[in-house]
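job 3f2a | input accepted
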Amino acid sequence: MGLRQWQRDLPGGALLAVPFTLIAVVTVVDVNVPPEVHLGPFLVAAPAMTASFAGPRLTALVGAVAVLAQVAVAVDRSSITDLNHTYQIIALFLISVMVTFFARLRERNAAETVRLRTVAEAAQRGVLRPLPLHSGPLRLASLYIAAVEGAELGGDLYAAARTPAGTRFIVGDVRGKGLDAISGAAGVLGAFRALARQEGHLPGLVTRLDSSVAAHRIDSLNENGGAGDDPGIAEAFVTAAVLDVPDAVPEVRLVSCGHPPPLLLRAGRVHTLHPTEPGPPLGVGPLSAVGPTEDVFSFREGDVLLLYTDGVTEARDRAGRFYPLAERAASWPGLGPERLLEEVRADLLRHAGGRLGDDAAVVAVERLPARG
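job 3f2a | predicted structure (372 res):
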């Protein structure tokens, strides 16, 4: 068990008791061992340990107690003016001051991380609107799990748009992190919501989305005076799966732009909807000489579509193994979208040890039986 995991598992009071117990044990043993044995240097571990989980005040308190314990040992064994003990006391005092200073820096950095993440999460909530529970003959559910490593959120995105003939979906991932990625996601989602009802042909919709992403990149370059110190702007792109689910026809149409393929759950089996000719991500250049390729798959009553970002399938366990979404989804037959995503969330976090290294988004779409 790692130190961080051990710290998380211990209650706050029990954790704080560890350095004080260490001070007490070292002090008692030090006054009872032969004079040529000196255990005082071990007291340095107490403030250093405290700085890893507590703030500067508690770290300073533990350091002061450790210094007083070293003084008590010096008085008991010989004299406080004994050269060996004097150097030990001075060294312990200086180290305690140093670790208190670093504890203060860590506390400030943690507060800044929380502030930045709060701002990013607020911005992202404004971008990712909740999906409706129903859209025509479809039942929907969505899931978003933010990564916990660092303050910057990713540009994962999803949306649904109702059209006269059915429902269109997009699930994608903007390259990069932080507010720039969220801004890119907002641009893609805004374009999708505006164009999904205007463009009747799915490949035509994707072509216009690609043009929108490219225009957003050019605008960002102009606002920043060119790529400059941020080459990521010049290399910005969006992987996406864009789908059209007609109301009257039991099928789903897919255009893939460098995105992980959707999964189709049917009668306890999982089918991967591999595109015949996957296109490049949005914004990297012309999609192809003839435009995006549209694939058509069967999507019958009772079927469930799983759309996801690579934060799901690239989540690793302690052994470095990727999360097997298709395999796990096959073990949950017959669940509706909400229950299915509850299982995915719990199982994914369990697989990754409770912490994801990248944001993850999943959308579940079920075709309901026709009303009689």
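job 3f2a | The two ends are 58 Å apart (CA to CA).
job 3f2a | closed
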